[in-house]
Design brief:
Helix content is about 70%, strand content about 0%. By secondary structure, it is mainly alpha-helical. It folds into 2 domains: about 35 residues; about 150 residues, Orthogonal Bundle (Lysozyme). The protein is globular, with a radius of gyration of 21 Å.
Length: about 180
């Protein structure tokens, strides 16, 4: 009698574990699709690939609209005040407060605009503008200029090897991997 009870216990435990894993997967997938409409709208408005925006959102906030960073970043794309102010000025918004970036639509528009601006900055002068733009998005222009020496000015592989911030290199790799994942 005891072995039968043990067997049912293990069967029940296995079913509960499988159910929990399935629920975790389903909720994660649902979270990734929740902001597709605002991501697509920002992508169309600023002529940038929606899969890239989604990859940055995934890396920056894991789709948590209320996310806040330690350096004042806000929202899905973790946009800081200087970038948000640039966007608001470019869009001719008369009244703008950084806190409005908590709204997913506003945040995605500001972040996509800024990312598109960075891609354009490196478009003509580098073999692959994305690593440069993502490094700029993550670490800032000052650091990118420091890493853009010698062949690193135009060769993205050399640029990445000259990067002395391993966290930024991991950031770029993670975003590019997720970008390829979302393109499928």
């Amino acid at each position: 009698m005891v072995p039968v009870r043990k067997r049912w216990f293990w069967i029940l435990l296995a079913v509960l574990i499988c159910d929990g894993v399935g629920m975790y997967w389903w909720l994660g997938r649902r979270g990734e699709k929740r902001y597709d409409a605002v991501i697509l709208a920002a992508a169309r408005r600023y002529s940038i690939n929606s899969a890239l925006i989604k990859a940055v959102v995934w890396q920056e906030s894991r789709f948590k609209a209320a996310a806040r960073g330690t350096a004042g970043e806000i929202g899905l794309m973790q946009v800081r005040s200087p970038a948000a102010s640039e966007w608001a000025e470019a869009e001719k918004l008369k009244v703008f407060e950084h806190e409005t970036l908590i709204d997913p639509g506003t945040n995605t528009l500001a972040g996509a605009w800024y990312l598109a601006k960075l891609i354009k900055r490196y478009q003509e002068t580098t073999d692959k503008p994305l690593p440069y733009a993502l490094a700029d998005y993550n670490a800032g222009r000052t650091h990118v200029l420091r890493w853009m020496t010698g062949q690193g000015r135009t060769n993205s592989s050399v640029f990445l090897s000259q990067m002395d911030y391993p966290g930024t290199r991991r950031y770029i790799t993670a975003v590019l991997d997720r970008y390829r994942h979302y393109q499928r």
